Amino acid sequence: MTNTTKRRTRKLVLLSLSMAIVVFGLWFSGTNTFKFLKGYLLYKTAQTSSEQVHVKQSEPKKADTYKVDEPLYSKRPQKGEMIGELFIPKLKASLPIYHGTDEDELEKGVGHFAGSVLPGEKDNSVLSGHRDTVFHRLGSVGKGDLLIVSTSAGKFTYKVRKVRIVAADDRTVIVPKPRATLTVTTCYPFNFIGKAPKRYILVSTLIKSEKQLQAGEG
């Protein structure tokens, strides 16, 4: 083989190696670029999803909206005004209720203590009556019996939860209550002659409200 032929052969080998290196480089570079791009896209996609989840989780919750209860009574009664009726199923008795507990009201029926809430309202509504007139049979009413009050605001059913006998000057009868309560009180003992030293108390809680629709409602 001549020197010229040897040189040509080397050039071809070198050229082939160079082309192989270039092709390999391109392949290697392209493969890594593809992997890089693929990894980058996956990263960005995961990052975006994470951000969306983070945003959703960090969104403040809307505050609950509560409806303000409308008052049961559009106006407060005047002293001496008849405000409703007390029905005692155990006695089959219907008794008128007057606003106030002075003798003028108690002579006509059951008196509603003006310093307490009206029947059906939350807190303690206090009713009083004479033991020798409207409440002469109240002693037979006890725990578990019902008391039903009807007023301009509706019909309110109470269930007697407790019977108390307290001193005549016991002021716990009229204390506020955490729930709608009807307290019915009369003098005690029932057969006592003269000014009775004690009070017979029925403490009942509201179990059913049938509100009267106001004009323009329903």
In angstroms, what is the radius of gyration? 45 Å
Average pLDDT, all residues: 80
CATH class bucket of the largest domain? Mainly Beta
Q: Which structural category fits the helices and strands?
A: alpha+beta
What is the CA–CA distance across the termini?
A: 117 Å
Strands of the widest sheet, in order across it, are: 1-2-3-4-7-8-6-5
Model description:
With 218 residues, this protein is α+β, with helices and mostly antiparallel strands. It folds into two domains: 1-58; 82-211, Beta Barrel (Sortase, Chain: A). The chain has helices spanning 3-58, 103-106; strands spanning 82-88, 93-99, 110-112, 124-128, 146-151, 154-167, 181-188, 198-211. It has an eight-stranded mixed barrel with strand order 1-2-3-4-7-8-6-5. Helix 2 links the parallel strand 2 (93-99) and strand 3 (110-112).
Please write out the topology.
Blueprint: H1 3-58, E1 82-88, E2 93-99, H2 103-106, E3 110-112, E4 124-128, E5 146-151, E6 154-167, E7 181-188, E8 198-211
Parallel strand pairs: 2-3, 4-7
Antiparallel strand pairs: 1-2, 1-5, 3-4, 5-6, 6-8, 7-8
Concise overview:
28% of the residues lie in helices and 29% in strands. It has 218 residues and is α+β, with helices and mostly antiparallel strands. It has an eight-stranded mixed beta barrel.
Characteristics:
2 domains; alpha+beta; rod-shaped; 218 residues; single chain; Sortase, Chain: A; eight-stranded mixed beta barrel
